[in-house]
Amino acid sequence: MSQRLTTSVHTFLHFGKTNL
Q1: What is the pLDDT, as a whole number, of residue 11?
Q2: What angle do CA 9, 20, 18 make, to 5 degrees?
Q3: Distance, C-alpha 19 to centroid of its chain
Q4: The whole model's pTM is what?
Q5: Cα–Cα distance between 1 and 17 in angstroms, integer?
Q6: 1-20: per-residue pLDDT in tens?
Q7: What is the pLDDT of residue 20?
Q8: Rounded Cα gap, residues 20 and 7, in angstroms
């Protein structure tokens, strides 16, 4: 459960960095 949430957050952060 925790791992899945971490992955989601990581992906979100990655997308944000790419946009920036």
Answers
A1: 93
A2: 55
A3: 13
A4: 0.28
A5: 25
A6: 688 999 999 999 998 887 76
A7: 66
A8: 20
